Amino acid sequence: MHRSTTALVLCLAPMAICATHSASTGPDLATRLQVHGFASQAAVHTSQNRWLGDSPDTSTEFTELGVNASLRLSPRLLVSGQILSRRAGDMYDGAPALDYGLADLKLLYSDAYRLGLRLGRLKNPLGLYNETRDMPFTRPGIFLPQAVYFDKVRNLVLSSDGVMAYGELYRGFGSLAFDLVAGRPLIDDNVEWAYLNQDFAGDLDIDGVSWLGGIWYSSLAERFKLGLSWADLRLAFDPDAGAPFTIGPGQTDILYWIASFQYNAEDWTLSAEYAREPIEWRGYGPLVSDRDATGEGWYIQGTYRLEPQLSCFLRWERGVADTADRDGTELETGSGGLVPAHVGFTKSLSAGLRWDINRHWMAQAEYAYNEGTFTLSARENPVFRDHSKYWSLFALQLAFRF
Amino acid sequence: MVLFCALILGTWAPGVAFSQELIAHAGLPIDTLTRTQAQLYFTMRLQEWPHRQPVHVFVLADSNPLHRRFAKQLLNLFPYQLRRVWDRQVFSGTGQAPRLVADEAEMIEQVAATPGAVGYVEAAPSDINIKPLAVR
């Protein structure tokens, strides 16, 4: 709480300074201040297993609201902030939070390069979609490919309070870009549920400074895009001193990286990403034994634009909790049958349709057939034995933007 | 092939029914842009002209046929790519969107009235506050 208040002050202070500064330059404020936002509401039905609420009975507990403002103080300096409210089943209750709040300072810029710093609460630029993952119009479907973007632990990589250096180089062969973030990702109870399988008495938090970064290549006119991005984090558990039942002060080291590919043609886009996540658990005591695992996920998606306002997609994705146990058999035997093998992996085929009705409204429909339950939240589906191995999902979403 | 023909028509036969031209406020001390420069200005990545004047970018709606031809033929970008770049910047707080105008008449009016402005039209009007910009 204290840390987030500090971050809020840190982020809003430059905006306040800037607001006073710009008040003195008066009349063209309207052209330099922009306010944008979005809202979405979905209905989700699953054959079995809970996905964002009581989906077997059709859930409408997936609602997104965001409003942002940005002020260009000079060609060199931009300040911006966004408030996000996200209601997502048992995982998020819709409480508004500062999604980002930052000052962007360009140190050097020309038509050949740019180099700058961002300070405040920053969206982590991981993969093709993480930076704007909550803005429905920017996603490649109603849901991001879960084997790579895990909504069950989204906060682990969502944003950081810290500083980012970024640079871009524009040349005849295309452009090269890099970014490097030093900061503290903002985590929540969902992260504890995902990495410790329940909410023990005590706090799981980021230990020390986390490093995130990315390097990207785009060909001329951005037809072809390649990137590698990563996050290097350590989680540490601080048990409640007086609690009758909890675990030791252990730590979890995570290196999450994504290799990204995208090809853009006029009528279609092909995207593929591969993510790997080596994890080490240490020092939690007998309830959470010391172990290593390497999570892995990938997808390939083709999107075809039938008309400028109408597109459809087909996506195939795979994910495993541990590459050393791809079919989950060790998970099942090691847990004495408490955790079925299919909790350790996911295979999913999805198809969707998107209609951009006008410049404010968009509607989407999506169907997915799944084998395995690796991408389900343990918080929403706490009894592993009750997970159904084969399940399907159908969702509709209506979204608005301004 | 169709795109290629359209490109030839659009670039080499200004004045025909399907053409488009880049225009700027007449005070701008340059007459040409490279395609890379035009892309950087219209993707909102570069906010200053080489002589350090702030850039003001005006665009029509994504679905406007003139906007679609402008994106493809003058910028060599598909309209959905422009939208993607703008959205990514606007909704991560790292940039702003260009200013939207309702039609060509408003485009001309705004570019003429705003020092440092850049936009596009079917054919450059004979307005003393507007100059055409060549893309090479």
Structure description:
The complex is a heterodimer of chains A (402) and B (136). By secondary structure, chain A is mostly beta strands. Chain A contains 6 helices and 18 strands. Chain A has helices at residues 2-25, 29-32, 146-149, 155-158, 189-196, 329-334, and strands at 33-46, 59-72, 77-88, 92-93, 97-109, 113-123, 159-171, 174-185, 202-206, 210-218, 224-239, 251-264, 268-282, 291-307, 310-320, 345-356, 361-371, 390-401. Chain A has a 16-stranded antiparallel beta barrel with strand order 1-2-3-5-6-7-8-10-11-12-13-14-15-16-17-18. The longest helix of chain B has 12 residues, at 79-90. Chain B has 136 residues and is α/β, with parallel strands linked by helices. Chain B contains 5 helices and 6 strands, in the order αββαβααβαββ. Chain B has helices at 2-12, 35-42, 65-74, 79-90, 104-113; strands spanning 21-25, 32-33, 56-59, 99-100, 117-121, 130-135. At the A-B interface, β1, β2, β3, β5 and β6 of A face α2 and α4 of B.
Keywords:
heterodimer; A: 402 residues; mainly beta; 16-stranded antiparallel barrel; 6 helices; 18 strands; globular; disordered N terminus; B: 136 residues; alpha/beta; six-stranded mixed beta sheet; 5 helices; 6 strands; 18% strand
Give a brief rundown of this model.
Chain A has helices spanning 2-25, 29-32, 146-149, 155-158, 189-196, 329-334, and strands at residues 33-46, 59-72, 77-88, 92-93, 97-109, 113-123, 159-171, 174-185, 202-206, 210-218, 224-239, 251-264, 268-282, 291-307, 310-320, 345-356, 361-371, 390-401. Chain A is mainly beta and 402 residues long.
**Most residues in contact, chain pair and counts:** A-B, 43 and 40 residues
**Strand line-up across the major sheet of chain B:** 2-6-1-5-3-4
Radius of gyration of chain A, rounded? 22 Å
Please work out how many helical segments of chain B DSSP would assign. Answer: 5
Strand and helix order of chain A:
HHEEEEEEHHEEHEEEEEEEHEEE
Shape of chain B: globular
Indicate the percent of residues in helices of chain B. 25-40%
Q: How would a textbook summarize the main sheet of chain A?
A: 16 strands, antiparallel, barrel
Distance N terminus to C terminus of chain B?
A: 21 Å
Structural class by SSE content of chain B: alpha/beta
Radius of gyration of chain B: 14 Å
